[in-house]
Specification:
mainly alpha; two-stranded antiparallel ribbon; 22 helices; 12 strands; globular; disordered N terminus
C-alpha cells in the first residue's frame, strides 16, 4: 500500500506534466510543459477545463487490460486460453491486477488534486460555474473509481484528500472501510457532483445526467449488498428514480444503429453518458490499446495485433442463438455481428478503402487459417486499419494506439437499470414504462413487436447481449452474488467457457465431421466459491500496508466535506 500512497504523493503534478502534449479537440487541449506551473495556471475558464481533460484518458491507461479481463473473461463472456481470469486462479502477483490497482488509485489521486487546486489556485477571472463544472466532472470520475474498487476488491481504504494523508504521514497504515461505507461515500460524492454539474456540458464531457445515470447504477448494485434472497426496496426505488430522470429529462436518445455506437465518428454520441476519450498521439498512455489485444493478427498494417488466441465465448454465442459449428449466421439480433465476427461476416466499416473486411477471406487468403479457438473474434474496441482511423476522425492511428472512445455507461444500460429497478423484488413486471424502456433496447437490436411482460431473467440476459464485451458483465455477477450467491455461482459454473477443436478444417472444407470438429471434450469447470467475488489485493500493496489484511474499520464521515 505504501507503493500506492507514495505514488499518489507525486501523481497529481506528474499526471499534468506528463500528459501535457498533443491535441485532438477539446479533450487534448492541455497546458504546455514549458509554461505550466500549478501556481500560475487555473487563471481562465479554459485552463480549468484543460486541467481536468487528462482524467478522461491517461490515468486510466493501465486499467484497460484489467477492465476487459475482469469484466469479460472472468464473467465467461470471453475466452483467453489459460488466463487465470478464465479459470478463477488469479493471484496477488498478477500483473494486470497490479496495474489495475495502481491505475485506480492514480485516478483517485488525480481527482483529489483537481478538487484541491481548483479551490486553491483559481484566479479571479475563473467563473464559479466553470469551477463547479470541472469539480463535478472530477467527482464523477472519483465515484466511478470507487465503484470499480468496491466491486473488484470489496472493502477498500477511502482516501478523501491526498494532501491530508501525506501530511499525516500514515499513508501506509490506512485501514479499509467497510463495503457499506464505500457505497455511502460513492453516493455522497455523486450527490455533490449533481449539485455542481450543469444539465448540459461540452460534447463528450460529463454533465448532471451522467451523474444521475451512475447514481442509478450504484443504487441498483448496493440494493443487494448485505441482503439475502431479495434487495433493499428503498435502494431499488432510488435506482428507478435516477434512471427515470435520465430517460425523461436528458433529451438523450439511443443511437439508431447499434454498431454505430462503437465507431470513431460517434465518440461523443448522445447515448454515451460516461466514457474514456482516448487519443492517438505521441504521448504514451493517452491512447486506446485494446485493438492490439483483441484483433486478429494482421488486422492492422502496424503489425500490432495479436488477439487470435482468444475470442467471444461459446457461452455468449449460445445466448445470441449462434453456433460456430454452423456455416450460416442467424442475424436476428444485430448486436451479435457488432460484438463478434464469425464465419460469413463481412464488415463495411473495417478496411473500407479495400471494400470492407471479409472474415473468411481474411483467414483463407491473408493468415491462411482460422485462428479463433471459439469460432469468433472481437468487433468492439476495434477501429480497423489506418485509413479507417483517418476516415473516422481525420487523424492517423499509431502503433498500439487508436482514438476510439471506451463507453463505460450508456443510455441503453440506464433503460435496463430502470426496467430491473421497477420490477424490483417481484421477479416480473407489466409496468408500462419499464416495458417501454426494455422494448426500446430490444427494438434497436432488431426484434419486432412489444413484450407485454418481462421477468428478471429477461432483463439479466438482455444486459448480457446489449453490453457484451464492454467490461461490465462481471460486475453484474458481483451484485447478483450480493443477495443470491448460490444462483450466481451456479450460473458461472454452468457456462461453456472452453474452446472448439477442428474449426479450421471445418471452415476450409465446409464439411462438418463431429469426430473432428467439436467442443472441448474435457472442459475445465472452475471451482468457484464466494471468495472469488473479491479479487486479492496485489502483493506490493499488502507488503507495504499489512492493515489491508485486517478487518475494515468504520469510516468517520464527520471528518470530511466537499
Amino acid at each position: 500500500m505504501k507503493r500506492i500512497y507514495t505514488q499518489i504523493r507525486h501523481v497529481f503534478c506528474w499526471v499534468i506534466l506528463t500528459f501535457a502534449f498533443g491535441s485532438c479537440g477539446d479533450f487534448l487541449d492541455r497546458p504546455t510543459v514549458d509554461s505550466y506551473t500549478i501556481d500560475i495556471f487555473y487563471q481562465t475558464d479554459e485552463q480549468c477545463f484543460q486541467a481536468v481533460n487528462p482524467i478522461y484518458n491517461s490515468p486510466w491507461y493501465d486499467y484497460q487490460r484489467g477492465f476487459f479481463k475482469v469484466g469479460e473473461v472472468l464473467s465467461g463472456n470471453y475466452y483467453m486460453g489459460n488466463s487465470p481470469y478464465l479459470t478463477f486462479t488469479i493471484n496477488s502477483t498478477d500483473q494486470d491486477l497490479v496495474n489495475m490497482s495502481a491505475s485506480l488509485w492514480s485516478v483517485n489521486a488525480y481527482c483529489n488534486g483537481i478538487l484541491e487546486n481548483i479551490e486553491a489556485k483559481s484566479g479571479p477571472n475563473v467563473s464559479q460555474v466553470v469551477k463547479n463544472t470541472v469539480k463535478g466532472e472530477a467527482l464523477v470520475w472519483k465515484a466511478m473509481t470507487y465503484f470499480y474498487l468496491v466491486r473488484t476488491f470489496g472493502a477498500v481504504p477511502i482516501v478523501h484528500n491526498n494532501s491530508e494523508e501525506i501530511a499525516a504521514g500514515n499513508y501506509n497504515e490506512v485501514f479499509k472501510a467497510p463495503v457499506e461505507d464505500v457505497y455511502q461515500y460513492i453516493v455522497m460524492t455523486l450527490e455533490k457532483a449533481i449539485e455542481w454539474l450543469p444539465l448540459n456540458n461540452r460534447p463528450g464531457r460529463i454533465d448532471r445526467f451522467s451523474a444521475y445515470a451512475l447514481l442509478s447504477k450504484v443504487y441498483l448494485t448496493k440494493s443487494g449488498y448485505g441482503q439475502s434472497g431479495s434487495r433493499n426496496q428503498a435502494d431499488l426505488d432510488q435506482a428507478a428514480e435516477y434512471a427515470r430522470k435520465v430517460i425523461d429529462e436528458s433529451g438523450r436518445i439511443l443511437t439508431p444503429v447499434y454498431s454505430d455506437i462503437f465507431r470513431l465518428e460517434n465518440n461523443f454520441s448522445s447515448e454515451s453518458l460516461l466514457a474514456w476519450h482516448w487519443v492517438s498521439s505521441e504521448v504514451w498512455t493517452s491512447q486506446n490499446t485494446l485493438q492490439s489485444d483483441l484483433a486478429l493478427t494482421g488486422f492492422s498494417e502496424f503489425g500490432d495485433t495479436w488477439g487470435d488466441w482468444g475470442g467471444p465465448s461459446v457461452d455468449l454465442q449460445d445466448d445470441f442463438n449462434e453456433s460456430a459449428l454452423s456455416l450460416t449466421r442467424n442475424n436476428v439480433d444485430v448486436r451479435r455481428k457488432a460484438t463478434m465476427m464469425m464465419y460469413g461476416d463481412v464488415y463495411a466499416y473495417f478496411w473500407a478503402d479495400q471494400g470492407g473486411f471479409d472474415y473468411a477471406d481474411f483467414a483463407e487468403n491473408v493468415t491462411g487459417e482460422f485462428r479463433s479457438p471459439t469460432g469468433a473474434n472481437s468487433v468492439k474496441h476495434l477501429v480497423g486499419n489506418n485509413s479507417d482511423h483517418v476516415a473516422g476522425i481525420g487523424v492517423p492511428m499509431r502503433n498500439m494506439s487508436t482514438s476510439l472512445s471506451t463507453h463505460l455507461l450508456r443510455l441503453a444500460d440506464v433503460y435496463l437499470i430502470y426496467a430491473e429497478a421497477v420490477m424490483g423484488n417481484a421477479g416480473s413486471t407489466t409496468n408500462a414504462k419499464a416495458l417501454e424502456a426494455y422494448n426500446a433496447v430490444r427494438k434497436r437490436a432488431g426484434f419486432s413487436g412489444n413484450t407485454t411482460s418481462i421477468t428478471w431473467q429477461d432483463v439479466w440476459k438482455e444486459r448480457r447481449l446489449e453490453l457484451a464485451c464492454e467490461g461490465d458483465r462481471w460486475y453484474d455477477y458481483v451484485r447478483w452474488h450480493y443477495y443470491q450467491p448460490a444462483a450466481a455461482i451456479a450460473e458461472l459454473k454452468g457456462q461453456r467457457r472452453s474452446f472448439y477443436m477442428g474449426l479450421d478444417d471445418f471452415y476450409k472444407t465446409e464439411i462438418f465431421d463431429s469426430n473432428v470438429t467439436r467442443y472441448d471434450d474435457n472442459p475445465v469447470v472452475p471451482n468457484i466459491t464466494g471468495a472469488h467475488f473479491q479479487l486479492p489485493f496485489p502483493d506490493t500493496d499488502l507488503t507495504m500496508n499489512p492493515n489491508l489484511l485486517k478487518d475494515p474499520i468504520k469510516f468517520d464521515f464527520s471528518s470530511i466535506q466537499y
